[in-house]
Each structure stands twice: as C-alpha cells, then as structure tokens.
Amino acid sequence: MTIIAEHTTEKRDVYPVFRGLTELGVSNTDLAEALETSPMAVAAWRSGEARMPARLIAFLTLILDSLVERKGSEAAVTASMFPGLPAAGQIRTVRARDNLQQQQAFNCGFDRAHMESGLRLFLNWRNRKVFTDTRFVGVERGRAADIGHLGVAAT
Length: 155
Hints:
This protein has about 160 residues and is mostly helical. Helices cover about 60% and strands about 5% of the residues.
C-alpha cells in the first residue's frame, strides 16, 4: 500500500506477477488452488504482509508467461481471420505482458535453485491440469518442447 500523509491512498500488489494474473482473470482462489495454500495466504503475499518464497514467485511467473503466450496467439489468429473485429481484451493481454516483463526482470535476482524449483512446480502443476476452466486451456501446449529446450526432466 502507498501511504501519504498517514492515509492509505492505494492498494497495490507487491509483485507485478499478481497484477498480470489479475489482468487475465485469475483470482486469489485460483492462485491458492495452484499454490496449494489458502486464499488468505495469497492475499498476504499480494499485499506484502507476508514474504512470498522465491520459488513460488518463479512458479507464478511461468504460469503468467504461458497464459500471456496463449492469449497473444489467440488474438493473432482472431485478427487474421476477422481483420475488422475490435480487439476485445487485447489491452489486458498487453498489460499482463508488461507486468510479466517487470516480474522477469525482478526474478533475475533469484538464485538458480529457486528458479529450478519454480520450474519443477510449474511442470508438475501443468501436468496435473489443476485448472479446468477455459482460461487455462492450452497452458499444457508445448510441454515436450519446453522440457527438451530447458533440459529438465519432468518430475
């Protein structure tokens, strides 16, 4: 939160990854399910009341990355098929992508072990298909390519 003259003026997420996921319609309940924790813990991490482990930040960043990629692909296909159609929701995808880039820059400060742990969490989550909601359809796309490219064995 930003405090000016001892009054709360704005409630803001501590990490850009939360803003990006919110732009794409991901709720605290969705995040709690993916992180296997309570919505209250997610809310505390979002607000900065509790410190979020680096591996979980890396995990959420990978989720946001896959969702942004999917949304961008869908927008490109739609635009090519219907050139006159207004790009509904495109601004949200652009804002989510901006937040993703900010979070990725922040994550550069994490050590390799935290990043690898976040990657393992992401691969396990994607394999379990925790979300059956249409917002997450396609997240599993490219699984074999991801594993081969990263040189990581899925656990």
